[in-house]
Amino acid sequence: MYKNMKKLIIAVIIYFVICTNMNAQEYDQVGLVSRFGISVGVFPVWVFPDLGPINNEISKMGLNNLSSNVFTLGGGGYAYIMLVDNLRLGGIGFGGSTSEKELVNGFNKEVEYSYGLGGLTVEYTLPTNVNRFAFSIGAIIGAGSAELDIYQNKNDLPWDVVWNEVQQNGKATENINRKLKNSFFTFAPTLNVDIAVTRFMALRLGGGYIYTFNKDWKADNDIDVKGVPSGLNSDTFFIQAGLLFGFFTF
Predict the structure, then answer these.
(1) Regarding the domain delimited by 2-26+35-248, which CATH topology (the fold level of the hierarchy) does it fall under?
(2) pLDDT digit string (tens) for 18-55?
(3) pLDDT tens-digit readout, 60-90
(4) What are 141's strand-pairing partners?
(5) Quick one: which of 72, 88, 212, 219 has the fewest CB in 10 Å?
(6) What is the distance between the alpha carbons of residues 37 and 125, in angstroms, rounded to a whole number?
(7) Which residues, at least 6 apart from 87, have a Cβ–Cβ distance to it below 8 Å?
(8) pLDDT tens digits for range 138-184
(9) Domain coordinates in residue numbering, the chain
(10) Within a 10 A sphere around the Cβ of 80, how many other Cβ atoms?
């Protein structure tokens, strides 16, 4: 965990050095004005994790592959801090899932993959004289998780069966539920464009790449999962769209 935090801190320092240098050079240009605005909005976000290692296993269960295009939904907002021209701070959070479910040989089998994160957003709006458009580079600094839920059951589940399954040590059960989770810190460089439709509404389109700083998976009551394929991690590209409401002067 210490090494992961060290990587995150180094990445944040590099990011702020770049932003500071850009801000110092900005007003050497002629005819460019700083932006101002404050907003909140709704953000549909698509993430594209590599689920190949998971699909290799669930195909043996008789299930179709999980979609690697995971739709998530969230929200967030930002405000220009004014102390530094064109720099805005805010927050974002989103989450969603994809799943496959099938009746196989009399058993209800299901696998669900969930992905979500939340964090602070730091964005620098590039100086430009193009009205109604704000082009921004930035990053999300936060934390998130990927979860994998695996189910197998048959018919209804009587109350006494729930307890018999754990009271009779060593006896196999037909009912299975496993929850695997990868919790991580993240640094996600972003590139966004906001288009002001009116003074009080704007559209957003952008994306970036989510770097995660923990590859370990835990199961059930926080026990370690050993032998997880090295290709299974939570790093992923993402695309976001959005509808923002607030006050805009770009």
Answers:
(1) Porin (2.40.160)
(2) 544 444 444 444 344 456 678 999 999 999 999 999 99
(3) 999 999 998 999 999 999 999 878 888 999 9
(4) 120, 187
(5) 219
(6) 11
(7) 19, 23, 80, 81, 122, 123, 124, 125
(8) 999 999 999 999 999 987 888 888 888 888 776 667 888 999 999 99
(9) 2-26+35-248
(10) 23
